[in-house]
Structure formats: C-alpha cells, structure tokens
Q: What sequence folds into this?
C-alpha cells in the first residue's frame, strides 16, 4: 500500500525513542469483577454468551465449537505442545473497568498507566485514525476520529458489533474465511472468544491513516481470545495495526486469537502486527484473508516473544487478479520456538503472491519457516515468489525452513529461495575493525537483515521492533 509506506527511521530518530523491557513485563494487581475457574466447560461458554447478551445463533456457534474442540487433537507436527495444559488455563476474566470507554480519563488508573507505558495514547494523538485497548477478556477503551466516522467507517469492539451489526457479523464471523473446524485452536477460539475488533470500510472509502488495537494479558495462567473481523468493501482501503504483550510469569498462558479479513473487489487491506508476548505464553493464533477480484492483501508480521508461536497468516485468492504480499520476521531466544510462515491458495487466474520471511535465532532458540503455496487447477498465469531466510547468531541455535509447493496448473510461474546460515566472521571482523564492539556489530548486521520489514512499518512501530530485538540480543550476549 504505497500511500501508507513510511520511510524507516534514521539512527538519529531512533535515539530519541526509549524502549524499556519493564514496560512489557510489569504486571498489575488483579482487580476483576469475574474470574472463571480454570478449564473449558459448556457452562463457561454459556456464561460468556449470556454476559454479552448474544443472539441464539452465536451461542449455538459457541456450543458447536466446543464439541469440535473436544474431538480435535493437538497438532502432531511443529513445536511440542505437551507442556501446555489446557485444563489449567483461565479462559474468561472481566476487568474491573468500564467497557469501551471513549475517554482515557475513564480508564482505571492502574490500567491507564499500563496503556501509557506502552505508548498508545501518544501514537493515537500523532498518527492513528482510531485506537482500541483490550485488557484481559474485554475492551476497556475504543475511539474513532470523527472525520472517519462521518465517512461511514465502523471501528468497534467485536462484542459491540454483534449487537449493532448482527447481519454483517452473522454473515462473515467464522464462516468461509476461518471455519470453526479448521483446527483444534480455531474451535477453542470460537467457543470462548471475547472482545477484539470489528472494522467495516464502506465502498470507495480510503482510510489513509492507520487504525490500531492493542491486546494486553495481565493475570497468571490467563488466556486471551480476541476476534478481529475486517470487511473492506469494493474499492476501499485500510491499514490496521495490532500490538500484543503480557508480563512474565512462571505459569503458562495462552493466546489463541483469530483474524478474519474480507477484501472485496478492487479493495486493499494491510494488516501489521507486532506480537511481543512473554516467554511463558503459547501464541497459537489464526489469521486468514479472503481476497476477491483485483483485491490486494498485505501482511506485515513481527514476532519477538512467547515460548512457542505457531502462526501462519493465510490468503485465499478467490478472484481473478487478486494479489497478496507477506513480510514476516521472527526472533527466537533462549527457550523459544518461533514456528511462523505464510499460506497462499491461488484459486483464480492471474493471481499473484510474494512471500518474504526472516528468522533470527540466538542462545539456543529455534526459528523456523513453515509455509504453503497451493495453485489450483484453472488458476492459469498465476505467479508466486517465496524467499525464506534464517540467521543464527551463535552455534547452539537452529534455523529451519519447511516450505511446501503444491501446483496443479502448468501455465504458472513459481520461484522459491531459502538461505540458512550464521553471522559471517568476516562481516564481524570488518565492523569491529572500524571500532564497533561485537555486540554493536551483531546488532548492526541484524538491523540490515530485518530492514525489508522495518521499512514497511510506521516509524514508532519500526523503532519498537528494532529496540525489542536489540534488547534481546543485549541480554543474550552479555
């Protein structure tokens, strides 16, 4: 989305923005109006639905999903999930705060301070068209600039959207984009989802400033299951940004959110995400887009946290000339396994996809690319280019690539390139001979390696991701 691209910050610009690890790792004393017992039951699914005043069709969807969840097994590929005890997760917690306040002053002080530490009010004032903040299972703040609302743009908490736009939600919520039975964690999500974001961009409306939502887990053994549903109508454009974080505990937490994006004819959507969950969190998220004729879907994904991440944003190119681009970076340090990648299904002629994935591993971490490009029969003149790179910063880390190409049509162009390696000794020697320390040299090499992603993010987010990775490197090489 060329009109949304922002030049990456210079080193001078980056120096004035400080990222403190404590901003993410601190936690507040629990203040909840409701906290479920650990484990998932039918009674809990009914409780969530009742609390939100949902229509019967949504309750039925939750109960169907619960049955599917019990039938499905954990994935037997990828990272080992055996240490994730789903019976110990707390699936629903309501903070002691007003729901969907539209003034920062209405947010309780402890939550507001967390919100301010994460820099969201400043970002909203300076370059966001709207902002939302979810704390535990519910949205505590939501705001949209009047000039966008006047154009018919809808930007709501997902719970509120069920009440105000029931027909649209019923049509698009976990139907043809992310079906309930896609896998065990999509079913889990459908059973206990709470909060999230609903966006509707009317026909031919171009939102040229980003909308953002931030999701924060605070409690021990907590789970967060926000649902994001974005509908970009014909000829419309939007850039949506999500941020996520959680404090560090010894007990495991679970994030199993869901993102569904519908890109209509001649529409364009960009979804940018920086996921910075703590290292006790299992990040098992599902993200999918359905792209219609001449539509464009862009994924910008950064992962710099969690014990285990399994995340593969997917584009289904349903209409002729549909296009998708994916740029992703995953950082894995000690005790982390980042299994990320991209899935693309070419279902129509003249569709195109471009995938660029960068993995970094240090201090025994594992970073792996796992992706699928599937070109169906009849998708003639389709094009796909995939490049997945892995960079290891020491001798005890791992970088893996497991791409899959499934091509059922002859008249297509498909290219794949993968490169896995360590930091070159001659690069380090050259930089250190110019007066840099080894730590500084490694950070400079990494900054160049991730530059394709950084240049696609708004400045504040580019700096945040750079700083997060720098902090992790500093902690590993000290």
A:
């Amino acid at each position: 989305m060329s009109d949304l691209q922002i030049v990456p910050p210079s080193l001078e610009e980056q120096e004035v923005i400080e990222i403190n690890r404590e901003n993410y790792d601190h936690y507040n004393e629990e203040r909840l109006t409701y906290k479920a017992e650990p484990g998932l039951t039918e009674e809990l699914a009914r409780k969530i639905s009742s609390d939100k005043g949902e229509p019967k069709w949504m309750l039925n969807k939750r109960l169907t999903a619960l049955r599917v969840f019990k039938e499905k097994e954990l994935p037997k590929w990828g990272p080992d999930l055996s240490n994730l005890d789903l019976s110990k997760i707390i699936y629903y917690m309501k903070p002691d705060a007003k729901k969907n306040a539209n003034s920062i002053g209405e947010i309780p002080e402890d939550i507001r301070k967390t919100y301010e530490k994460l820099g969201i009010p400043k970002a909203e004032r300076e370059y966001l068209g709207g902002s939302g903040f979810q704390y535990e299972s519910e949205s505590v703040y939501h705001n949209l600039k009047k000039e966008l609302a006047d154009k018919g743009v809808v930007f709501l908490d997902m719970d509120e959207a069920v009440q105000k736009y029931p027909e649209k939600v019923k049509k698009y919520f976990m139907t043809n984009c992310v079906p309930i039975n896609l896998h065990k964690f999509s079913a889990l999500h459908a059973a206990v989802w709470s909060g999230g974001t609903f966006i509707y961009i009317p026909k031919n409306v171009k939102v040229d400033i980003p909308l953002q939502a931030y999701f924060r887990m605070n409690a021990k053994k907590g789970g967060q299951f926000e649902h994001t549903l974005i509908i970009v109508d014909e000829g419309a454009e939007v850039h949506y940004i999500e941020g996520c974080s959680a404090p560090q505990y010894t007990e495991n937490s679970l994030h199993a959110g869901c993102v569904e994006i519908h890109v209509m004819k001649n529409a364009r959507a960009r979804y940018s995400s920086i996921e910075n969950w703590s290292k006790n969190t299992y990040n098992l998220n599902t993200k999918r887009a359905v792209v219609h004729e001449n539509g464009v879907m862009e994924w910008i994904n950064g992962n710099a946290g969690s014990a285990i991440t399994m995340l593969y944003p997917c584009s289904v190119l349903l209409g002729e000339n549909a296009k998708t681009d994916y740029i992703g970076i995953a950082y894995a340090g000690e005790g982390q396994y980042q299994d990320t990648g991209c899935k693309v299904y070419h279902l129509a002629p003249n569709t195109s996809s471009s995938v660029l994935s960068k993995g970094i591993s240090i201090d025994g971490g594992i970073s792996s690319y796992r992706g699928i490009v599937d070109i169906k029969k009849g998708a003639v003149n389709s094009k796909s280019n995939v490049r997945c790179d892995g960079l290891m910063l020491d001798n005890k880390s791992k970088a893996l690539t497991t791409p899959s190409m499934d091509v059922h049509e002859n008249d297509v162009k498909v290219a794949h390139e993968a490169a896995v390696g360590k930091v070159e000794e001659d690069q380090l020697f050259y930089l250190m001979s110019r007066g840099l320390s080894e730590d500084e040299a490694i950070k400079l090499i990494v900054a160049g390696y991730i530059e394709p992603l950084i240049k696609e993010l708004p400045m504040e987010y580019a700096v945040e991701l750079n700083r997060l990775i720098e902090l992790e490197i500093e902690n590993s090489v000290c």
